[in-house]
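Recap from last week: sequence in, structure out.
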Amino acid sequence: MNEIWVEKYRPEKLDDVIGQKHIVESLKAYVKSGNIPHMLFAGPAGVGKTTCAIALAKEFYGETWRNNFAELNASDERGLDIVRGRIKDFARTAPIGGAPFKIIFLDEADSLTPDAQAALRRTMERYSATCRFILSCNYSSKIIEPIQSRCVVFRFSPIEEEDMENYIKKIAKQEGLKISEEGIKSIIYIARGDMRKAINILQMAASISKEIDDEIIYKMAASLRPEMAKELIETALNGDFLAARKMLDDMMIEYGLSGEDVIKGLHNVIVDMSLPEMEKARIIDKMGEIEFRIVEGSNERIQLEALIAYLSALNPKA
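Predicted structure tokens:
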């Protein structure tokens, strides 16, 4: 298993991209017309932004796509130098093989400093005859308005569960894996619309066993099972602090979960529990406070026990 499955199973054509039908149709129309505008791909991680950019270049240029397509990651070099240097040098040169223009794909463009974005705006304007820009970001609000106004904005959504399930089954079949329905559901639950994360979890599990179930998935992904999270909250709300504390011990020791993993797992299930709405609101508010303290460097064990103590104290009969 020397290959990285995320790259091995990356769609080669726009038609093979999953979960973004409305965007794919628009990109195919641009390819057919022979002209591409500056574009901004915005959306969460692992939903196909980079895949769409590469597939677009392959369909537009054919065999010469590598000569006319440059992929840069703005998080590596975020200042003015990358815009004035590498980006400008590539943009000003003529395309190869009779292509009308080159494409620069700037991944994680929201990592660019404001000064670099201002310089990029001018570069996009000046070299539009020989180059098109595709910017990819998680948060479009971090891209300055002058750049957004020069781009066609495509907003990518998380991958639907049905699409994820079909793709996971496709990979499992090609890799000779036997994965249970519970295993598939657990991958989808943990990934939450992130196809890249789902594929990586599947590859990790496949390195352990060819027969995969939900138990293997949760252990490999270091994620809290929803039923365990629900049981912990219910135990604490019943006023049994010591029993809830023992359950927390098992989660952190047996499953190797961090404080943030536990908080995320608890947060994922609280909304669906049969509790009064205002009680849910108070618990979520407390979870946010605890999560902030953990991120800021507080002792995660003390903070999680404080959360359990708070839940236990909500029961006036305890």
